[in-house]
Amino acid sequence: MDNKEIVIVLDFGGQYNQLIARRVRECNVYCEILPYTVDIKKVKELSPKGIIFTGGPNSVYDEKSPHYSNEIFKLGIPILGICYGCQLMAYSLGGVVTPAKDNSSSEYGKTETFYNTDDVLFNGLSESGTSWMSHRDYISKVPDGFTVTATTAVCPAAAMACPEKKLYGVQFHPEVNHTDRGTEMLRSFLYNVCGCKGEWKMESFIDTTVAKLRDKIGNKGVVLGLSGGVDSSVAAALLSKAVGKQLTCVFVDQGLMRKDEGDFVEETFTKLFDMNFVRINCQDEFLLKLKGVCEPEEKRKIIGTEFYKVFWNKIRENYGTGYFAQGTIYPDRIESGKGDAAKIKTHHNQVGIPEDIDFEGVIEPLKDLFKDEVRAVGEKLGLPHKLVWRQPFPGPGLGVRVIGEVTPEKVHILQEADAILRDEMDKCGYSEQMSQFFAVLPGVKTVGVMGDARTYDELVAIRAVTTDDFMTADWAKIPYEILGRVSNRIINEVEHVNRVVYDITSKPPGTVEWE
Ligand code: XMP
Predict the structure, then answer these.
(1) Catalytic: 294?
(2) Domains, the chain, ranges and CATH?
(3) What is the C-alpha separation between 77 and 69, in angstroms, rounded?
């Protein structure tokens, strides 16, 4: 990113590192996360306005604990160490970090903290407040030249500062919401210590990106695989603004989307945006390939393989020149600070291009943005709210929500049931409180009674979760009245369904999807 103002978040393996970066960006300062293995030459080249050392799971005394060259403290660049980062700063500069012998020095969770409000980080805040702690070792003596700027009942140095060298450290996590006014502390570091001006705004991102895209693409064509998900949709809107009809979006409708979703995507991009929109309807081919297949991983493989076959064949026919664009976003390509610096995460957003297609290059207009920034850009570009805030939807679509063999009849039943669920959740304003919710067709028939007649029909399951990261998730506590209405409507309105159940399994041990 050729941004003028950049802050580096040096990743020592902590769990909140992306959150730190997001908070910095929320303060309108562009930042990048780099692994602690990054060469100091690169740090100097980037000429950051400031550096933030993240937390990490280690003790500075662990044999394998991540350290960094002490030269970094001599560059004259302001540094803020957080948690492990604070301990590392103290240890590297001659302070004393006392290893936890028992649990008497550990602090986990909300902790009452006392601040020296003369310190620049805490200036204007209250003299005491809650901070979020997560540490065992503690700093028992700050390095020469530093003063203690915050304490807790068990932590003699909950924060330290050496204003002369612009070095600061906090034992707690200001990036976590549980720390009262934590974002203001970060903001103070960025603006009052680093001297940032706050140039990172989504409006200016759009303007500069559009100008750069025009410059790069010239009069060539650009093709984008549009799934209707947030990332590819925002990428499409941005490219449309930049080059209009030079953009072709290829949308593969494999028949496994939710009810009316294909039409909604088509309508959005043909009516609201200037571009060539190509929809490939291949429902029948996909269903034929899935005939008789029950094993989840095999289904996923078939759907994925077919998808790329159809997609690339279309590209070969007409659009195999010019540029290829994709909706890669920043978290898809962040290198982790957990040691293996060479390995960059591969992700479904980063597509392998077949060797026989010779594009001029790949364009990833959102590659520096976090998801919330992508959404903000989408809103500003006029994408419908429903699309910008769309829940995650698995690539194999309803193929993994119809359990067992996928047939047109089962897909139809599931689409209808799912549409009722979404309608009711929208009506009562619950949709946006859920991370994800959907209906599942387990392929189980049960006995029921309707009117005076015995029925033997399909069971529909409802799944709804709340989560921050989808690695773990809680089952959502949807009020009974809403569940009751959903159940009634599904049974009355969807033919061949006679029973509805609600999935109350968290992840782990369950996964979000049933297959
Ligand atoms: P699980 O079921 O693994 O789901 O707890 C976590 C999140 O990932 C989504 N998911 C998928 N997304 N292809 C995708 O693109 C897949 O095969 C797939 N399987 C699960 C799921 O919807 C949830 O958001």
Answers:
(1) no
(2) 6-193 (3.40.50.880), 202-388 (3.40.50.620), 407-502 (3.30.300.10)
(3) 14
